């Protein structure tokens, strides 16, 4: 496959370019940035043949098969729609859009065009998360009663920028991190939250956006989920606790981009260390995307998954603003 990067981003530089190139014969042939100098420098640094500042010119290239979008959140919708109109498959960073309605429009447009639209929810590609889902499905902890997700980190200075001070661009910890947590919970349980309560705050980094949020979600099965996300916790670590009627799964350091961490099964007074394969989360997701383009299976997280994680995040923000319990609106998806 021949890929174009919409956004000369750090995540593309640090993680995605290598993942895209990890498949024999696949190439990254173009990159787009609104800054001409950045586009040229980024292309030169990463050995990319073409640098663009005009999206239509980039998409007009008949050699281009698919695009990876990693611009600010407010740009995702227009850029994805342009790519779909140009007949390109789309892998988009989360959240898919600034509203559920726009995200649903993206999904419908891709379906009508016969194109693959996927959301880059990398965590569900982790061996640790797939091992936890297998334990749940096998009944090893009985009936699930509750989940605690703690995803409180310190946002590195080089990643701060618009994420901590620009609500118009989609900044804030809920859009950046809670969307991932919503997808993880959905992946583990196979169901989506019905409603939730939340509190948000700006404690240290947030300037016009929240940098800390705590929420409780009600699932259709009755499972309750507690979720804590933050940009301001340098020592908290990340993880999941999944508690059932016959046991618990305790996972540590599994909510990161690195394919590691630990998963322990607590059952009958014993603790069993759960083994799982470690792999590049992004490359695994790219492999599933490529298969979907070839008509073999579906992406790791498709557009509908992206709609649902965005819907949970939007409900969290509304609950934080109003102090009310909010029903999650999935826009008909």
From TrEMBL:
Pfam families: GFO_IDH_MocA, GFO_IDH_MocA_C3. SUPFAM superfamilies: Glyceraldehyde-3-phosphate dehydrogenase-like, C-terminal domain, NAD(P)-binding Rossmann-fold domains. Residues 1-121 form the Gfo/Idh/MocA-like oxidoreductase N-terminal domain. Residues 129-249 form the GFO/IDH/MocA-like oxidoreductase domain. The keyword Oxidoreductase applies. Keywords: Oxidoreductase. It comes from the Bacteria. Belongs to the Gfo/Idh/MocA family. This is Gfo/Idh/MocA family oxidoreductase. It comes from Paracoccus fistulariae.
């Amino acid at each position: 496959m021949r890929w174009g990067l919409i956004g000369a981003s750090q995540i593309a530089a640090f993680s995605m370019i290598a993942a895209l190139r990890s498949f024999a014969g696949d190439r990254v042939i173009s990159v787009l940035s609104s800054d001409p100098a950045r586009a040229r420098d980024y292309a030169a640094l990463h050995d990319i043949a073409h640098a663009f500042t005009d999206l239509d010119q980039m998409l007009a290239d008949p050699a281009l098969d698919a695009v990876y979008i990693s611009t600010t959140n407010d740009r995702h919708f227009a850029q994805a729609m342009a790519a779909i109109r140009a007949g390109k498959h789309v892998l988009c960073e989360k959240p898919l859009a600034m509203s559920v309605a726009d995200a649903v429009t993206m999904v419908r447009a891709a379906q009508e065009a016969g194109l693959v639209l996927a959301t880059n929810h990398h965590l569900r590609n982790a061996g640790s998360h797939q091992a936890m889902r297998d334990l749940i499905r096998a009944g090893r902890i009985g009936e699930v009663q509750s989940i605690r997700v703690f995803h409180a980190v310190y946002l590195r200075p080089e990643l701060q920028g618009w994420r901590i001070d620009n609500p118009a661009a989609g900044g804030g910890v809920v859009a950046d991190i809670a969307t991932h947590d919503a997808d993880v919970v959905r992946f583990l349980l196979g169901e989506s939250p019905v409603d939730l309560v939340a509190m948000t705050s700006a404690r240290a980094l947030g300037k016009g956006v929240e940098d800390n949020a705590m929420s409780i979600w009600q699932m259709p099965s009755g499972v309750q989920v507690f979720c804590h996300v933050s940009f301001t916790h340098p020592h908290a670590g990340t993880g999941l606790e999944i508690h059932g009627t016959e046991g618990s799964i305790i996972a540590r350091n599994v909510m990161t981009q690195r394919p590691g961490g630990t998963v322990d099964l607590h059952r009958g007074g014993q603790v069993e260390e759960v083994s799982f394969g470690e792999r590049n989360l992004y490359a695994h997701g790219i492999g599933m995307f490529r298969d979907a383009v070839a008509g073999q299976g579906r992406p790791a997280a498709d557009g509908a998954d992206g709609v649902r994680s965005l819907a949970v995040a939007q409900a969290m923000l509304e609950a934080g603003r109003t102090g009310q319990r909010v029903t999650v609106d999935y826009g008909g998806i």
